[in-house]
Amino acid sequence: MTPPSRLINDPLWRHRGNPEAIEHDRFGFRNSVLIEDTTTLLTGSSHAYGTCLRKEQSWPILLQGQGVKLFNASTGAWGFMQFSMAVENYLREGMTTVILVIYTGFDMYAALKHSLETRSPFVAGVLGDSLKPSDIDWSWKAKRDVFVKEAMKQPGAILAKALDEARRAGFSDTEFVTVSGRRYFLEPRLRHLTTDIASDYGRIAWECSTKYMSYVANLCREYGVRLSAVIMPTKEYAFRGEVGGVPYFGELIESESRLHAALQDCLAPWCYEIIDITPLYVENLRAGIFFADSNDGHPNPLGARLISEFLLKSGAFS
Questions:
Q1: Is 26 inside any structural domain?
Q2: CA dist 63 → 67, 81, 313 (Å)
Q3: Pick from 314, 272, 267: which is nearest to 97 by CA?
Q4: Disulfide: which of 18, 59, 66, 134 matches 307 by Cβ 3.0-4.6 Å?
Q5: What is the pTM of this model?
Q6: For the chain, what is the mean pLDDT?
Q7: For residue 56, how far is the Cα from the chain centroid?
């Protein structure tokens, strides 16, 4: 029998975790504790959910195992819209802290995309009448993905080989960097497009994101709880000191640096603490904290464990 899907479509949330899925709790999230027994509400997208990892390998579950009383309301491919909805729906009496886990490579882009697609009256209440820009041109990525998918159908195919073939065929975001004998494929063109707050789409996506963050800050003030944020950079941004001559990489570094600075400025008046994971990534690149021979941008089990240890030593849960 086919196991239940991890995600289900929802007209208000766009999508959410399936409560019937293996590893999920009654809300559709990954937790090893009951919400009634927690004092911290954490919400984010795939980097907080633990995409590409087993439940027990994800850093929020590791923190729960260390006695941190956090409830993880995170789901892959969410953005600021769903973060604010999660805080509104799952912040309970007795909780003292809300932590936003912000992945720079997607969450801002998703804030506008999901806001335009949902039928939720919540969105209109937060955003009002926002402009509706044309979406980013993803045709180049779609063609590359089709090529890689077809290459993966060949006998003995592996992702690294398929990406090598795509690079030889001239497709973007198929370059790699080698660190400590491991190859990591990079997607600077994709990440530039999703982090660029100077573009037409990015400018309005950033405006939407700031409104959602302001809404969360106001909720925290109303409930008398402390707000903190964890900023998780793209894999490409972490590798910026190891890369040279890769197309679109300079544009990505410029756009993501600008986004990091904007996030710090926006969150500073509201947050008790802002924790940037970038230094941890840079310090441990040579230990192998990402998936080798892959273009996936999520931390691997070692990376997740280091994140949990780093956050446990921070003041986020004190």
A1: yes
A2: 7, 25, 11
A3: 272
A4: 59
A5: 0.96
A6: 95
A7: 19
DSSP string computed for 164-219: HHHHHTT-SS--EEEETTEEEE--HHHHHHHH-TTSHHHHHHHHHHHHHHHHHHHH
How many residues in total does the chain contain?
A: 318
For residues 25 and 60, is the Cβ–Cβ distance under 8 A? no
> Please, which residues have CB within 8 angstroms of residue 267's CB and are 6 or more apart in sequence?
213, 229, 274
> Domain tally for the chain?
1
Question: Strands 7-10 and 14-17, how do they pair?
Answer: antiparallel
Q: Residue 268: inside a domain, yes or no?
A: yes
Contacts of 32 (CB under 8 A, 6+ apart): 55, 61, 64, 65
Identify whether 144 is part of a domain.
Answer: no
CATH assignment of the domain containing 14: 3.40.50.1110
* Residue 78: domain span: 7-136+187-290+297-313
CB burial of residue 222 (10 Å; 0-12, 13-18, 19+): exposed
pLDDT at 127 (0 to 100): 86
For 26, 192, 251, 307, the CA distances from 303, given in Å and listed in that order, are 28, 23, 26, 6
| Cα–Cα distance for residue pair 167/79, rounded to 1 Å | 30
Which residues of the chain are modeled with pLDDT < 50?
A: none
